[in-house]
Amino acid sequence: MMLRAVQIGLMSGLLFGCADATQGRDASEAVFSGSCEGICGGEAPSGCFCDAECLDSGDCCPDYEAVCSVHASCDEDDPEDDDAGDDAPPPGDQACFLGEDRNGTTCLPVVSIDPYSYPSPLNNNYREPIRYIDVEAVDLETKIAPNWKLAEISVPYKGRYQVVQPHAVDKLQQVRDQAGALVMKSGFRSPPYNAEQPGAASRSRHMYGDAFDLLPQSTSQNNLYNICNSLGAGYVAKYNSGHVHCDWRNVSVDPLFYGNLALAPGGPPPAFTLADLTLSIDTDGEVYWVEASGYDTEEGELTREWSALDEQGEVLTSAETLTFEPPVGTALLRVNVGGLSEVEHAL
Ligand SMILES: [Zn+2]
How confident is residue 44, by pLDDT bands cut at 50, 70 and 90? Predict the structure, then answer.
């Protein structure tokens, strides 16, 4: 009976949507005690849950709706979701994007669902999403920014349920504004799709909806690399195929997709380092190359930018090639790999 009372409370919370997330809830009736503060998407020490599944299983912590379930778009009167149709979720569960007109009112419905198993989170920015865009329920031709259609980021075979974070789309458009035409080589990847890709990073940022692989069409790879860095990207890598991976892993994730992280105090500091990237220069006696591991090889090889220095430290020559033959007089080889790190080798 008690459990049932909790479920009815949750149901009314859902039905009333944005009116008041806590309406109809009475923590004193709850079978489970504990708080979701700081653990949206997870399990509280007391054993109650703070993920979307708890709504079905009836084991949510009493304040799940209030803390984790953020109806971010309730103030939008008339969002442009022509395509929501009969599949539209309750009002309020929408992700609103910059849109073609840059007004931030291009909204798409999102669903509360738990379709994938994510890796254990490194920190708040690596939590499992609590909502997704159902790519079968939206118009992929929707322009979520002046120069970007949803279809360029959300490719259905990479997962029916996808995350595209609006703040990352804002950055993506800013990159486009500065870099000119870009081809999106990869946007969102679901965890199952990511796991199938040989060499993919187990915590690829592409699973979190704020990573983009961009191929410049009217500017250099280096310029695109610099633009992403200047726009606050947390990880920028140059690949030999010509694309640049830009993601915003160090910026707070969108509460609509990840719960209200503003209510999560403390927590571990960001754990984003290049510690996993290992580089070593190898040679067959004439030709040199760099062995690199610890990065997302699914995207291809990182660039290698070679400099050959003489005894005085003067640069004799430089080249961007996967392998390199140093000229006579080279005393030191220095290689920048992917714009991420450098490695040196004395001859
Ligand atoms: Zn990438």
Answer: confident
Distance CA 237, CA 74 (A): 37
CA 234 to chain centre: 11
Ligand 1 centre distance from Cα of residue 154 (Å): 14
Q: Which domains does the chain show, CATH number per domain? A: 2-68 (no CATH), 85-263 (3.30.1380.10), 278-346 (2.60.40)
The answer, yes or no, to whether residue 86 has pLDDT greater than 60, is no
Q: What is the pLDDT of residue 68?
A: 63
Distance 117 CA to ligand 1 centre (A): 20
- Which contacts of 318-322 are long-range, i.e. CB under 8 A and separated by 24 or more positions? 322/240, 322/289
Contacts 24+ apart (CB under 8 A), 71-74: 71/17, 71/18, 71/21, 72/96, 72/254, 72/255, 72/256, 73/107, 73/256, 74/17, 74/18
Expressed in angstroms and rounded, the spacing between residue 165 Cα and the centre of ligand 1 is 15
Q: Which residues pair with 304 in a beta bridge?
A: 337
What's the 245 CA to ligand 1 centre distance in angstroms?
4
Q: Residue 278: pLDDT above 70? A: yes
Distance of CA 273 to the CA centre of its chain: 16
Cα of 157 from ligand 1 centre, angstroms: 17
How far is the centre of ligand 1, averaged over its atoms, from the C-alpha of 155 (Å)? Answer: 14
Quick: pLDDT tens for 132-180.
999 999 999 999 999 999 999 999 999 999 999 999 999 999 999 999 9
Say how far apart CA 204 and CA 74 lie, in whole Å: 31
Q: What's the CA-to-centroid distance between 246 and ligand 1, angstroms?
A: 7
In sequence order, the 6+-apart residues with CB closer than 8 A to the CB of 197 are: 189, 298
